[in-house]
Amino acid sequence: MFLSVFDVFKIGIGPSSSHTMGPMTAAVRFLDMLRASADAAPAAIRVRLHGSLAFTGKGHATDRAVLLGLLDYRPDSLDVDEAEERIAELWRTRRLHPAGLPVLDFDPETDLVFDFGPPLPGHANGLVFQALDGAGKVTLSEIFYSIGGGFVVTAAEREAPPAAFETECVGWPYPFHNAAAMLRMARESGASIAEMKRANEIVVRSPAEVDEKLGAVWAAMNGCIERGLSLDGQLPGSLKVKRRAKAIHQQLLRERGANSSLPHVASDWLAIYAMAVNEENAAGGRVVTAPTNGAAGVVPAVIRYYLDHCAGAEPAKVADFLLTAAAIGGLIKHNASISGAEAGCQGEVGSAAAMAAAGLCAVLGGTPEQVENAAEIALEHHLGMTCDPVGGLVQVPCIERNAIGATKAVAAASLALRGDGQHFMPLDNCIQAMRQTGEEMSTKFKETSLGGLAVNLPEC
Fold it and tell me: H or E element: which one contains 53?
């Protein structure tokens, strides 16, 4: 399966790729299905949220995301101010006016249902959309699954047997489906992981387009860091969590001027870059899945750390960082999961740390074997991490967890660069261990807010 770097890094909005971007995309897809159906004759729409989308949907703004999708907004092109006005109008009128369809009845209060029963069989994040005619008869129904990172599939797509890997990858010069194949192809070709990934990308896009889109991804990531460092105040939601990145940033700037900082302060810079992104994500701002929104701070933070704090850093190498990171993220998604609702936070921040470690190792001169080792070290030391957002909000422990994930990524890259790439546990085995751990992990610890930190709150 070829997963593009632009599938891994998608520009969208917070606070969650699986709970916000995915449901919004699913709603748009359902409208497209209605437009293509000659028999639907829709007069009204109903939506049911199942599994993790029901349990933590309020905190992840899933209800708002569905409304935005039914209003024909897409995550990558959302005009926030205009969207807020149209949501307010929808609440007033209880009517949708989608292009190419008749006016549809939709009451957000009664036609969007949070179903707290068992999850649907295909995935922990399930949605059911139904169109009804004027007599209340269901004329079109579709199940969607939001499978992490903003990816959405229908039930039929989820259940379809996968095509043979060799068939899917005809035409790709480097069709690696696991890390072992990736390293073998690197040895045989003499190419770096980034060069192989770029060669695959230019099968479907021109080199200039690849460069342009990579530049846009980094610009969006860095812009998110800058916004997060410039804003303070309280994040939305019941926890009343205060933004901290700006205040810590100002402290670090004052210390830099005084020339009195301690050696470990570089880690504080790394941490605030990640926190800035995830505070923006928690506020519903524009972020880039990396590979998810909940883990969106790790990769940008490590890139910014490389540019600001590594001697000899070259901005032109950011593209190689992103390509290398995307190669690792693609392997993890293909062979395990990047969904917190499916694998816990090991699948989100753990995957992001592996991606960031690989990218940093690559731009610091690491061989493909060292890059694979860096990814394995970072992922290995996130195994078993639960997804237990307090209050269903992507705030506690998610914001700090990205900061610590970024520091683990840098440490992993550094350790790998000190070796020759030879190590005991292959990345492929580590990915399989993560998949198995996620399968056996209790659903209480997989983005349902039914266990872990989510139920161990201060009593005062």
Answer: helix 52-55
Q: Which residue has the tokens 């704090």?
A: 309
Strand extents, DSSP E, 168-244: none
Residue 365, φ and ψ in degrees, nearest 5: 100, 10
Tokens coding 279: 């505070």
Rounded to whole angstroms, the maximal C-alpha distance in the chain is 74
Q: Please give the structure tokens belonging to residue 324.
A: 């290398």
Domain regions of the chain by residue span: 17-159, 165-455
Comparing CA positions, the residue from 249, 246, 303 lying closest to residue 280 is 246
- Does residue 286 sit in helix, strand or coil? strand
User: CA–CA separation, 103 vs 91, rounded Å?
Assistant: 15
Q: Please tell me the distance from the alpha carbon of residue 368 to that of residue 183, in angstroms, as a whole number.
A: 6
Cβ atoms of 61 and 15 closer than 8 Å: yes
User: Which of 26, 48, 292, 335 is closest to 176 using CA atoms?
Assistant: 335
Distance, in Å, from the CA atom of 293 to the CA atom of 313, rounded to the nearest integer, reads 27
What Å distances lie between residue 116 and 52, 70, 113, 206, 448, CA to CA?
9, 22, 9, 47, 10
Do the beta carbons of residue 50 and residue 62 sit within 8 Å?
no
* pLDDT tens across the length of the chain (460 residues): 579 999 999 999 999 999 999 999 999 999 999 999 988 899 999 999 999 999 999 999 999 999 999 999 999 888 888 999 999 999 999 999 999 999 999 999 999 999 999 999 999 999 999 999 999 999 999 999 999 999 999 999 999 886 654 555 668 999 999 999 999 999 999 999 999 999 999 999 999 999 999 999 999 999 999 999 999 999 999 999 999 999 999 999 998 866 666 888 999 999 999 999 999 999 999 999 999 999 999 999 999 999 999 999 999 999 999 999 999 999 999 999 999 999 999 999 999 999 999 999 999 999 999 999 999 999 999 999 999 999 999 999 999 999 999 999 999 999 999 999 999 999 999 999 999 999 999 999 999 999 999 999 887 5
pTM tops 0.90: yes
Assigned superfamily of 17-159: D-3-phosphoglycerate dehydrogenase; domain 3 (3.30.1330.90)
The answer to whether residues 23 and 70 touch, using CB atoms and an 8 Å cutoff, is no
